[in-house]
Design a protein that fits this description.
This protein is α+β, with helices and mostly antiparallel strands. The longest helix is centred in the N-terminal third of the chain and has 20 residues. The chain starts with a strand and ends with a strand.
Length: about 190
């Protein structure tokens, strides 16, 4: 069984930072964008960052930083914003699908209508391998909202996903994340 839970120990944070570095290295080799303005591995090492992870039998498969926002500069209205999503390179399970299912259910439980995310991009959105990644996200239910400056200045594709209660999801993904909006737009756990 999978579980989504906070990264609560230094070892889990170090593992997340290593996962991010591996994913960034793989993206660079494939000609995909990586952040240039932010040290993302350092964010995951920082105990003040409210990072969460998707685990299977103690193995970290994905990590991200969720935020409940009242408004996002490229999309109006409240949302669950998934920042800095990184998945374990080469893992055979469909991690994007698992994250999509969990996120839409989590947003519905938080009573926000949308999940939003950004994916860093270089060049033409219709060029491979980026086009294939975007098609996969659309097939999973994400809507493309165009490209532009991301929250941290890098060029990004903007994505929306409708919140949806998914009964029975807890049989697949145990959720041990209790998100609460704060006045800063960050979440407390």
């Amino acid at each position: 069984m999978y579980e989504m839970r906070p990264l609560s120990t230094g070892a889990e944070r170090a593992e997340a930072a290593a996962l991010v570095q591996d994913r960034q290295r793989q993206r660079t080799l494939r000609g995909l964008a990586v952040p240039t303005l932010v040290d993302v591995p350092a964010l995951f090492r920082d105990p003040q960052t409210p990072a969460i992870g998707l685990f299977e039998d103690g193995l970290l498969l994905a990590c991200m930083i969720p935020q409940v926002l009242d408004d996002l500069y490229w999309g109006t209205g409240p949302c669950l914003f998934l920042d800095r999503i990184h998945t374990l390179p080469g893992h055979p399970d469909d991690l994007a699908r698992l994250i999509t299912l969990w996120a839409s259910d989590c947003a519905a439980r938080l009573d926000v209508p949308l999940v939003r995310a950004e994916m860093l991009v270089l060049g033409d959105l219709l060029a491979e391998p980026l086009a294939g990644l975007l098609r996969r996200l659309v097939d999973l239910g994400w809507d493309l909202r165009g490209a532009g400056p991301g929250r941290n200045g890098d060029r990004a594709v903007r994505l929306d996903l409708r919140a949806e209660h998914r009964s029975g999801l807890s049989a697949l993904i145990g959720c041990h994340v209790d998100l609460h909006p704060t006045s800063t737009g960050r979440v407390s756990q």
